[in-house]
Amino acid sequence: MRIFRLNRNYKNLTRLIRIIRIIAKYGFSAFLARIRTGLGIVPERVFQTSQEASTKALTEPERVRMALEELGPAFIKMGQLLSLRPDIIPPAYASELEALLDHTPPAPFPAIRKIIEEELNAELKDIFESIDEKPIASGSIAQVHRAVLKDGGETVAVKVLKPGTRETVETDVSIMSYLAKLAVSYIPELEQYRPLQLVREFSEILRDELNFIREAHVIERFARFFGRQENEYIHIPQVYRRYTERSVLIMEYIDGIKISDVDSLKGAGMDLEAIAESGARMGLREIFEFGFFHADPHPGNIFVLPGNVVAPVDFGITGYLDEESMQVIGNVFLGILDRDVDRVIRYLQRHDFIKPDVDIRRLKSKL
To answer: Which among 16, 112, 240, 344 is most buried, taking Cβ atoms within 10 Å?
Structure first.
């Protein structure tokens, strides 16, 4: 089973060997043994990597999370997305992978400076009055620095793609696809989790996230949908288009409180019920009115401003719904509100969200 193009063969093989060693290091040699036949291109000595002693007392979900962290940006992002899908992975794994939503190590500022200057074709001193070298946030693929624009004096957030990320992601997505094909071929019980489809969907999402010009379009689209006059409950940050390129996005700096920081929200005199209502209104309008929604709403991506105003800040992942999908979701939602389990199951079955071999009686007892 060959997926590597000849001109990238060595690069992919070297990275695949590194990935296999990390998988073994965290105690998943049994998985490697089952797909070993399909990994004939990998030298036998690579499979002799032993589990690291310090990991043996850890739970399997903990080892999965640590392995993803060491594997790098694409794998961290996959873990982040899976943490939002307890319908696909067991709750214990989803809960552990939530830790990936926090902080990842930032790239050194000289490398960030180089990317900004190359992308914007100007020196930092000609763009900013000042820029903080220490990032205010650092994710798996990008980091954010606070700065003050030289032209206008506005305080802005400068989102920069970490150096080497685009190349690393392309290699790793190819390898993920390769491993998913092997998993389906040699471990049939994994087919129920649809690994090939997951990797395809994930690769599309991740490639979209690597294009900040696209994200700028998305932010402006949300701003048009909600309208500036509606900022009594939601605030969409302004994009500075003249300073935005494929690897650099400059937008309004949101000086708010993370929506998950309940103590700080209370201390600032915020109304938690009003905040929840604002978030619900935002989500419902996105789904049932716009058919276009913010698809990565974890706590690190949503802030609260004075007046209980909800302010999303990361628009790299979005979703679309057609009319039929909105109707399905609406009917399921109404069924949940009415506590009508039969109605929920009926609509899910009608639109193939429930497989024919599912035990409906058992499913009802879980809902």
So the answer is: 112
